[in-house]
Amino acid sequence: MEEIAQQPSENRIAVIGGDGIGPEVVEAGIRVLEAATEGDGTSALTFTRFPWGCEYYLEHGRMMPEDGLETLAGFDAIYLGAVGWPTVPDHISLWGLLLPIRRGFDQYVNLRPARLLRGIESPLARPGSLDVTVVRENTEGEYSDSGGRMYRGTPHEVVIQESVFTRRGVERIVRYAYEEAGRRRGGLVGATKSNGISITMPFFDEVFREVGEEYPDVEASLMHADALAARLVLDPERFDVIVGSNLLGDILSEVTAAASGAIGIAPSGNLNPEREYPSLFEPIHGSAPDIAGEGVANPAGAIWAGAMMLEQVGRPEAGKLVLAALEEAISGGAKTRDLSGSTTTKEVTEVVIDHLRKR
Fold first, then answer.
1. Per-residue DSSP letter, 12
2. Which pLDDT score is estimated for 6?
3. CB within 8 A of 194, min separation 6: which ones?
4. How far, in Å, CA of 311 to CA of 288, rounded?
5. What domains can be seen in the chain, in order of their start residue?
6. Distance of alpha carbon 326 from alpha carbon 169, whole angstroms
7. Residue 266 near residue 257 (C-beta atoms within 8 A)
8. Pairing of strands 187-192, 219-224
9. I want to staple 240 with a disulfide (CB 3.0 to 4.6 A). Which of 187, 204, 326, 339 is the partner?
């Protein structure tokens, strides 16, 4: 654990670089965030790094210490690079670090904005046309740990995994989505699959309609998730806000990220809107072990996630500056290999910082 010098009344950020390219992109993001807030007359950002992840697991048998959540609870936000490594099964890395943080800190909103930034070509959207946010339920639904296996390894093996939908959980994520739509352009689509999933999805639909009665100014509708995925491919610019369960929101946000031109630029926030606990911010790309250490990873997703984090800790103007500087850098040709460019991680970071300082 390494701590940067503390100052009074700072915003304290816990940093988990994680695995693969995670430490590379999150360190790039830290440099940008420091540049965005230096000399702005506000309190300092301070970053405390924790070496948790798959390498920690291989040494200690855990993805983070037993008191990891207690340690993180004292911070204003958490900044995560990426988690995952080929020698550690995905369910161990996910259930050992990210999901305990999401659930332990009641980060029930997974917010995934997608925009077609200037300078990026999309296979699906016209320049300037894509601006959609997916609101994904983040603590229950299909990603429950309820179920089991019987008669393992025999012809009679039975595998059961149960989805858990609570009225409290569905109502609060749907309400957040209506509020988000009200802050944006006033359009909301609820992702459902009630034509095939006969209990949980009709319940989701009912709550969606009930909550919608409180928001007459939001143009809301339900759409089957498979048809919605197809429509996002054919006509992504028609959408404003999409809300879905844990599984459906996860899948659809990958579609919107692809529509924005590259997974490497997409951010996400795991939010506790009531701010009783710290929220977590991360790029949605994986740890990319095949390019780890080569200095060619795209830092855009981490930088954009950092901009979201600035808004969460009460610095929305700085967050807007970061996103604007990132877009200027990309439109000016600072593109990594995944965007058909040859700029390195460090070079992209430097260009973004240069644009920030010019502002």
1. E
2. 43
3. 201, 202, 204, 205, 222, 224
4. 28
5. 1-116+262-359 (3.40.718.10), 122-260 (3.40.718.10)
6. 35
7. yes
8. parallel
9. 187
